[in-house]
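Lecture notes, unit on protein representations.

Consider one protein chain, 582 amino acids long.
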Amino acid sequence: MLDLKITGGDIIDGTGAPAYRADIGVKDGRIVSIGEISDPAEAVVDAKGKVVCPGFVDSHTHYDAQVFWDPYLSPSCYHGVTTVLGGNCGFSIAPLTPGAADYLGPMLARVEGMPLATLKAGVPWDWTSFGSYLDRLEGGLGVNAGFFVGHSAVRRAIMGQRAVGHAASDGEIASMQALVQEALEAGALGFSTTVSPTHNDGDGNPVPSRHALPAELLALASVCSRYEGTSLELLPDLAFDEAMVELITDFSLAGQRTVNWNVLDVQNADSSTVADIRRKLAVSDYARSKGGKVVALAFVTSPRLRINFGSGMLFDSIPGWEDLFRIPKSERLEKLKDSAFRAFLFNAAATAELAKQRQRLVDWPNFTLEETFSAATKPHQGRTVGEVAAEQGKTPFEAMLDIVVADELKTTLCPRVGGIDRDTYALRAQVWQDEERVVVGASDAGAHMDMIDTFAFSTTLLQDAVRTHQVLTLESAVHLLTEVPAKMMGLRQRGVIRSGWFADLVVFDPATVGRTPAYTRFDLPCGEPRIYADATGIELVAVNGVVIVAGGQHTGATPGVVLRSGRDTYTVPIPAALHAPT
């Protein structure tokens, strides 16, 4: 008898092939039959009029901490995601040395927008090795999850407080290599790091990996070359100057692995955006010419950023503004009242060389006052800074800071977001289908809980690109969400509906699939808030043959597996390996 039978659905198998109508039979976590199935089953699901496809793969999450208070990994599970990859940007929470949690917790709170109170209350912080961290997760995951070992955690474990502000000695690099090797032997999916100027720790200083010289980055990447099924991730400076292009290429060659980077954001369809996309994707061409492989992760839509002067995330990437976010909030508030200091900030921003992607961070008139927090500022909520400034006879920068000060730094500001028109989606679709250089993803699920809602990338893609703008077929969209990321990461027997493969499956209504607008939920440990969005039209989600979501409700099942390199992943060869002499 089958464990599960899904009947009468339109199967989109993930390969991009046309849909076809068939039943699917599942036994012991695997797809065992596809076609007209008469065998009885413990559970039968009628999928007539619905699409049946592989579970979606999210290749860039930060669920490393959330797994301890939310094993279902919401909201991803409700949006059809059955496999997540964490430990990105160098921000794994293993290995862990005594006292390291006191640094890593505030770092994650600052750089990844996870409430510190939640991290303290919801995470036990009682493992040591990367392997012992993975062992803690076995048997309790709602979806499949694999994790990179992160550079900042490794650097902190070996160098302690010297991890910030100091170059590593040869001996320290060798010790870090040994620690990365130990993590890969335990099943880490690869090595991740960041040199992005937006990544600062709880003290406002660059995170540990940003203090590494290129030789250290390459030495640590090289460890992956010895382990089956591993890959690399590097968050670059998106300006992509010549040195950055060389670094990310050498990173791939050192590890003999694909490098993915975050994030390619198509904000509109004008000529300058097209030129910027070409420039960034040319990095992949250069890497390939040298024998490496570099892949961009792409947003499915430009995120509506919610930023503030309390956390300082993103504002602290404006040259000259860094020190403001290193001082206590009470001192920061006083500084922002000072006219001379305001003039300094304004001039620093006006003269800063920012990548095109970050120029909207200084477009003061077009900031929306998303949420205000005092009686004096409440009337401004929902308006642009420019509108308020014109009404008050002030400059936009002055009007904005007056509101921020009145709100004691709590004001939520949203830079202008474009790209919701069909032309931009058509350009995005063209970019997404460049499978050699681009993978849809960059969700950051589990992070930036106060800032973005890109965790809903899968349902957003199906809603906006397929139903609303019709720039992708359903078959193409599913392919981008399943087989493409699965192949990039070398996931064994996942990402396609095929007999004998794992039964990670989604049933959805093509007429209603999508997501709700974002809203705030106060459901984190200690009652802390997070931005959330519900899925629509996702009828059923199964992981390893077990239904975890039915009718939008979680069943309580936790059939996910901890993905370990080699066992659950295979090596994806880079051009240098393909053309190497035998």
